Amino acid sequence: MSVQLISTYSPLLPLILFLIFSLRKSRAELKVIFLYILLAFSIDLYTTNTNYGKNHIFAFLTAFTILEYLMVSAFIWLSLSVRILKNIIIFLSIGFVIYMIIYFIHNDKTTFDAIPSSVEDILLMMYCIMYMFEQIAKPQIGFIYATPNFWVVLAFFVYTSSTLFLFITTSSFSEDEQDKYWVINLISNIVSNILLSIAFIVNRKSQKNPDNPDDSYLNTVS
Amino acid sequence: MIFLQILSESNKVSTVLFFGTIGMLALTIGLIVFIIFHQRKVIRYQMRLQRMEQDQQKMLLNASIRMQEEERQRIAADLHDDAGPLLATARLYLNENLVNLDKASQLQSIYNAKQIIDDTIQLIRNISHSLMPPTLKNFGLESAVNDLFQKISGSGSMNASSRFHDYRERLQPETELIIFRVIQELVNNILKHSNSSFIHLTQNTSGNKFFIRLHHDGRGLTQSDFEKLNKSNVGLGLKNIQSRLRVLHGKIFFEKDMSQTYYKVTIELIKEEEPASDKK
Predict the structure, then answer these.
(1) By CA distance, what is B43's nearest residue in A?
(2) N or C: which terminus of chain A has fewer CB atoms within 10 Å of its end residue's CB?
């Protein structure tokens, strides 16, 4: 099996886990992530199997960049509780969406949207750090890794940090080189889907013990 | 494998891509590991604090229960050893009255029985007063404390004086009782352990804070002594003071005067809202 194939079908794992474990009882932010995985899987499936040319795929990918950004930032926005951090996300998102609309209209879409993807990566990494910052600043009894949201943030943090330099440098490569290095994106995608699967498993565990979801983890500390 | 291939190429951009990606991943993993370990450390610390707090509360509760038991034993002993024999003697006199037909002897035994019943009434009154001082109930903390200090001074063992600077409005009766018990306990400790020649009590207010300060010139405690005794199994009275003050969200400070001559105990309380504002 090629890495490409594994990467394309890797979203099936979190999708199945979500459907089995936590479809009805999940919080709104996890439902957003489910929709995101579904969308990413559909786009991946379509772009790898379509017979239309690369230009058509690039247009699709640019549209996906906007949707991906909106969904992930919506997830982090819902996970945060500090007002100022939420406002920062709204403010930056408005700026990014305006930029993407201008980019979508004016760009010929003949190449991969390297700059928007890099900007998206940087913004999402910032949001992930904001989430982590809020978690360590907030007094709480449970461990950070006992919450599904942490694993989702971790998935996006790992994905964005490992693909950032790929997206920044991709325009400097020839088409052959781009195809060769694209494996970094594929591996990152597989890793992030594994982490998202862990998130849904952790969510299942916390649903089983709603009164004190972190008890089992607390007992392991001392 | 892919990274080795990248490294083998002399392409500058590939090197940037390789090191950039590795660097970013290392930073991300480092940050995550730091956050997890930091949070574990904080939670462990919080749990330790919580456990210490629970232990402390358990100790205070035990002290308060033991104090209550001791008080009950004292009342039981007073009733059994003093009131019991007195009433039994009175009964004997009255019994004697039934068999003795001599008028003069009858009068004498009735008089004796009356005397004994008077003593018993006084004794029961004393027990009752020790449970709830009537001066405190009827006239307030200031009068009760003044009364207590007058009694100490009257005994001649020590010079005791008190002065309330700002006590125009009485506190809640329950609050007054708790403060009075704390003062009683502190004064008892000073009488028992300090060997001092005087005690002086002052009362002040500052903003919404209410202060009571006790000075004496004998052997006393500092804050560290107090905390040490509070954590140990001895010092029942001090634990009782602590648990009483906890009910009022009050604080107590033990210190030695700047001149190193006197010991000072300060009780600090937050004054409750005026009843008028409660009705709003």
Answers:
(1) A141
(2) N
b/e B196-215 (16+ beta carbons within 10 angstroms → b): beebbbebeeeeeebebebb
Tokens 């990494």 sit on residue: A125
Model confidence pTM above 0.80:
no
Residue of A169, A185, A191, A202 to mutate for B, most B C-beta atoms under 10 A: A169
Contact A144 B44 (CB under 8 A): no
Q: What is the DSSP letter of B265?
A: E
Model confidence band, residue A222 (pLDDT cutoffs 50, 70, 90): very low
Instruction: Tell me how many residue pairs between chain A and chain B have CB atoms under 8 A apart.
Output: 70
Nearest-CA distance B40 → chain A (Å):
7
Please give the Cα distance from B170 to B179 (Å, whole number).
Answer: 12
* Structure-model confidence comparison of residues A30 and B274, the more confident one: A30
ipTM for the whole complex:
0.79
Residue with token string 């037909």:
B101
The SS3 assignment for B269 reads: strand
| Residues B189-229: tens digit of each pLDDT | 898 888 888 999 999 998 888 999 999 988 888 888 888 88
Are B256 and B277 in contact by the 8 Å Cβ rule? The answer is no
Give the DSSP letter of residue A146: G
* Domain ranges across chain A: 8-206
The verdict on a CB contact (< 8 Å) between B31 and A164 is no
Mutation for B interface: A129, A161, A173, most B CBs within 10 A: A161
DSSP per residue, B86-136: HHHHHHHHHHHHHH---HHHHHHHHHHHHHHHHHHHHHHHHHHHHHS-HHH
Location of structure tokens 């905390």: B227
Of the candidates A9, A37, A25, A5, the residue with the CA atom closest to the CA atom of residue A203: A25
Both structure tokens of B76: 């039981």
Chain A residues with CB-CB distance to B44 below 8 A: 221-222
Angle, CA of A24, A150 and A199, to the nearest 5°: 45
Q: Does A129 touch chain B (CB under 8 A)?
A: yes
What integer pLDDT is reported at residue A72 of this predicted model? 94
- Cβ within 8 Å, pair A144-B35: yes
Residue B25 tokens read as 């991943």
Q: Which amino acid is at B116?
A: I
Q: Encode pLDDT of B102-148 as tens digits.
A: 788 888 888 888 899 998 898 888 888 777 788 888 888 999 999 88
Partner-chain contact A169 B31, CB within 8 Å: no
Residue with tokens 């005087």: B198
Closest Cα in chain A, distance from residue B153 (Å): 54
